[in-house]
Design a protein that fits this description.
The structure is a single chain. The chain is mainly alpha-helical. The protein has a single domain, classed as Arc Repressor Mutant, subunit A. The protein has 5 helices and 2 strands. The protein has a two-stranded parallel ribbon. α1 crosses α3. It is globular.
């Protein structure tokens, strides 16, 4: 399958991502890859391609979040705020700190303590 810079139907995929992100509790975070694993590959995308691009697509969905999506609760797999313009990164850190999510001296969140493991069953 050729490289896909975005999912085949971005709005459908983004809506599914936003549904999950809305469920991340205050004071918790999830990674882009975790969220990608909670979703099946979009129609027409094989598992291998989705494994390669899923987290990137989730990142795109989070970046395009509507106002009611707590986008600040999504971080990278190291527990760090992903690179973006400085103002957005500072805002994300501030919003998480307001939710009592601490950062260690290296700028990381303890995912074992503050990570969200998914939608309750």
């Amino acid at each position: 399958m050729p490289e896909l810079p975005s999912p085949p139907n971005p709005q459908v995929f983004y809506s599914k991502v936003w549904e999950i992100v809305r469920q991340i509790p205050r004071g918790r975070v999830a990674s882009y890859g975790q969220i990608a694993k909670m979703l099946p590959p979009p129609d027409g995308v094989n598992d291998e391609t989705y494994l390669e691009f899923g987290a990137l697509w989730v990142s795109g969905a989070v970046a395009a979040s509507p106002n009611d999506v707590p986008w600040q609760r999504v971080v990278n797999s190291k527990g760090e705020i992903s690179e973006r313009d400085g103002a957005a990164a500072r805002r994300q850190r501030l919003l998480l700190q307001e939710e009592s999510v601490p950062f260690n001296p290296r700028g990381r969140i303890d995912l074992k303590k503050y990570g969200w493991n998914g939608i309750p069953k």
